[in-house]
Amino acid sequence: MAALGWLTPRRRSATARSVLAGEAAAEAARKSSQQFEALEALEAQDDTAPAAEPDFPVAGDDRAAAFFDLDNTVMQGAAIFHFGRGLYKRKFFQRRELARFAWQQTWFRLAGVEDPEHMQDVRESALSIVKGHRVSELMSIGEEIYDEYMADRIWPGTRALAQAHLDAGQKVWLVTAAPVETATIIARRLGLTGALGTVAESLDGVYTGKLVGEPLHGPAKAEAVRALAAAEGLDLTRCAAYSDSHNDIPMLSLVGHPYAINPDTKLRKYARAREWRLRDYRTGRKAAKVGIPAAAGVGAIAGGTAAAVALHRRRR
Questions:
Q1: Which of 40, 180, 281, 293 is the most buried (most CB within 10 A)?
Q2: Mean pLDDT, the chain, whole residue set
Q3: CA distances from residue 68 to 6, 23, 48, 86, 187 in whole angstroms, order as listed
Q4: Catalytic residue among 61, 69, 244, 264
């Protein structure tokens, strides 16, 4: 399969659909990040005194970046479930679907691990719900849903880790199976660089109910990180990645500084065997008390869906 022009040819071990999903997510993330930077350049920035620099991350290392899983790593619970609650409130679907969303969210919170069948069911439901709706409509609603259901569920400890990379002058990306539009809203609200997420197909600004490739999950996340690193000129051995799930071991294994955050049982065992760093903020004992930066502009995620359309048409 032909790679994107900016991606160096290499042997791939993941499925073709994982590669396609990863490349689509990387292209969408880069476009949205460029829009963020343009918006921020127009805003007056207050100069603040830099804090004491920790040994890691290394300040000024522009070939390093950080990649954060979203669900149960940066945020309590799953973003797509919170998004579903917001859509139900706005009459996008009926009580029966809400009950299924609520059960899956409760299970995820209690078990602290992703169930592939649950996640697949939710993705199919979400695609059927948004089919025929305009991307701009869902983006506007996503901003409201973040304020209603997500803002108060950010783990302060993980937020502090992300801020340490930003303070060191490094880019910080979310990497998630959540829709790229939702993920990019969250990234922007937290002051991060951007997001790699599942890319839903849209034509003429309207969702078709299909995905570009497959959900950004497991091996597809690793493909997305690899593609973005190639495009950005990053050295993965100097980068960091953070996740709670053993499903993200492919992504964590790519970087020189992997972290297990609120890890599930399998990831905790795997991380300890390899002497990876572990952080658990679920008890609240280690959570740093930090504030969440204000949003840096609005309307910066249209590039994600535009990239999806361009990539889809290019593939055809």
A1: 180
A2: 77
A3: 23, 18, 25, 24, 10
A4: 69
Catalytic residue among 61, 71, 167, 235: 71
DSSP 154: B
- C-alpha 34/C-alpha 194 separation (Å) is 9
Contact 23, 7 (CB under 8 A): yes
Question: Lowest-pLDDT range, 111-115, 156-160, 223-227, 272-276?
Answer: 111-115
> 248 catalytic, yes or no?
no
For 253-279, give one letter per residue: b (16+ CB within 10 A) or e. ebbebbbbbbbbeebbebbeeeebeeb
| 69 catalytic residue (yes or no) | yes
Structural element, H or E, at residue 240: strand 240-243
Q: What span, in angstroms and rounded, lies between the C-alpha atoms of 232 and 221?
A: 16
Cα separation of 222 and 256, whole Å?
14
Kindly report whether the global pTM for this prediction surpasses the value 0.85.
no
Q: Measured on CA atoms in the order 162, 166, 170, 176, is the torsion positive or negative? A: positive
Tell me how far apart the alpha carbons of residues 247 and 268 are, in angstroms, rounded to a whole number.
Answer: 12
Give the single-character DSSP code of 299. -
